[in-house]
Design brief:
The protein has an eight-stranded mixed sheet. Strands 1-10-9-12-7 form a five-stranded mixed sheet, with no helix packed on it. The chain has a domain of 211 residues: B-lactam Antibiotic, Isopenicillin N Synthase, Chain (Jelly Rolls, Sandwich). Helices cover 25% and strands 18% of the residues. By secondary structure, it is α+β, with helices and mostly antiparallel strands. The chain contains eight helices and 15 strands. β2, α2 and β3 form a beta-alpha-beta unit. α2 crosses α5 and α3 packs across α5. Bound molecules: N-oxalylglycine and nickel (II) ion (NI). N-oxalylglycine (OGA) binds next to β6, β12 and β13. The site of nickel (II) ion (NI) has 3 residues, from loops. InterPro entries: DIOX_N (IPR026992), IPNS-like_FE2OG_OXY (IPR044861), IPNS-like_sf (IPR027443), Oxoglu/Fe-dep_dioxygenase_dom (IPR005123), Plant_2OG-oxidoreductases (IPR050295). Belongs to the iron/ascorbate-dependent oxidoreductase family.
């Protein structure tokens, strides 16, 4: 039984409807972990509540990240991306080539997906992190047992187009077509940003093409239902994205926070913009010139928030280390050279609370250098 979020039932209603809900999921007990299809909870279950010193502290004011208009001159855009990238590591882009229709359709179809009855989605539920298409709750990072107030639909899309879409959800009916159109356009924008970065960094313009950006494009459709107590929990833990480049369709409901100068800043999304940030692999390739910045998600009491993160990824076997262009006697390599698969294996645990380490977040990967 799926219930729309919005009105908050009285507690007695909650427990009765929860029992009915559990019965409706007989045969698929794991779906119980999905937050969005469970009856609204009046209080936050213990596994979501962090110790007092690990709770999201009151944050600094909302900040509008630099907004870069990709239709400006190439010189200007190149400079703006590098400046914003070095200063904050996060920026927004507009006039980015992804059509308004593709963005709107994607947002609509993702919200529709999460509103489908639980039984329609039960077959997609899996806790196997190797599964390309699945729904799950909390985070894919290993945690210390605590859970996060977030559900996720993960989709992978191979490029050039293969048959990766075959196991995507069949409902809503237009999901496959909408996701494919969105992913092709969003990846196109990402590849253009990578070319601009290469030019700005003095690398061959196609240095970040090939295996380093040629793995599956992975989509995380993040869904954060209204949370009974946003002050004691998080939607996503502080983490850095492990891929090459992330392009986030952020929703106009705020929630994303970014580590900046020892504190968290709240991202104020601009209309029709994507939020862009560098994944760990860009930090490694540039030997730390560009940083993959830590970020997290806070929840809210009133409205559900749905975001779409598009990850441009290396192939699993791609060997990635600092590029020769960034190395010299004074600049020895700060990171080990690893395959992307090995990197993900090493960098798979999140620590509760923030590390806010401004030098680098890749401590484990650097340790044996
Ligand atoms: C992510 C992520 C942020 C958000 O999916 O890796 O950081 O606001 N998402 O949903
Ligand atoms: Ni992220």
């Amino acid at each position: 039984m799926a219930r729309r979020h919005g009105r908050r039932p009285h507690e007695s209603t909650v427990s009765a409807s929860f029992t009915i809900y559990l019965c409706s999921l007989a045969g698929c007990p794991t779906m119980e972990k999905m937050l969005h299809s469970a009856p609204i909870q009046a209080t936050l279950p213990d596994c979501f509540i962090f110790p007092a010193d690990k709770r999201p502290p009151a944050t600094a004011a909302a900040v509008s990240l630099p907004i870069i208009d990709l239709s400006r001159s190439r010189d200007e855009v190149r400079r703006a991306i590098l400046d914003a990238g070095k200063e904050i590591g996060f920026f927004q882009v507009v006039n980015h080539g992804v059509s308004k229709q593709a963005m709107q359709d994607m947002e609509d179809v993702c919200r529709e997906f999460f509103r489908l009855p639980a039984a329609e989605k039960a077959g997609l539920y899996s806790e196997d992190t190797h599964k390309a298409t699945r729904i799950y709750s909390s985070t894919m990072f290993e945690t210390g047992g605590e859970r996060y107030w977030r559900d996720c639909l993960r989709l992978a899309c191979s490029f050039p187009a293969g048959d990766s879409a075959m196991d995507w959800p069949e409902k809503p009916r237009r999901l496959r077509e909408v996701v494919e159109r969105f992913t092709v356009q969003t990846r196109g924008m990402g590849m253009e940003i990578l070319r601009l970065l290469c030019e700005g960094l003095g690398l061959r313009h196609d240095y970040l093409e090939g295996d380093i950006s040629g793995g599956d494009v992975v989509l995380h459709v993040n869904h954060y239902p209204p949370c009974p107590d946003p002050s004691t929990t998080l939607g996503l833990p502080p983490h850095c994205d492990r891929n090459l480049l992330t392009l986030l369709l952020p929703s106009m409901v705020p929630g994303l926070e970014v580590a900046y100068k020892g504190d968290w800043i709240k991202v104020q999304p601009a209309p029709d913009a994507f939020v862009v940030n560098f994944g760990c692999q860009l930090e490694v390739v540039t030997n730390g010139l560009l940083k993959s910045i830590e970020h997290r998600v806070v929840t809210n009491l009133g409205v559900a928030r749905t975001t779409v993160a598009t990850f441009i990824m290396p192939t699993t076997d791609c060997l990635i280390g600092p590029a020769g262009e960034f190395l010299s006697e004074e600049n020895p390599p700060c990171y080990r050279t690893l395959t992307f698969g090995e990197f993900k294996r090493i960098y798979s645990v999140v620590k509760l609370g923030s590390s806010l380490n401004l030098t680098t977040n890749l401590k484990n990967v650097q340790k044996e250098i």
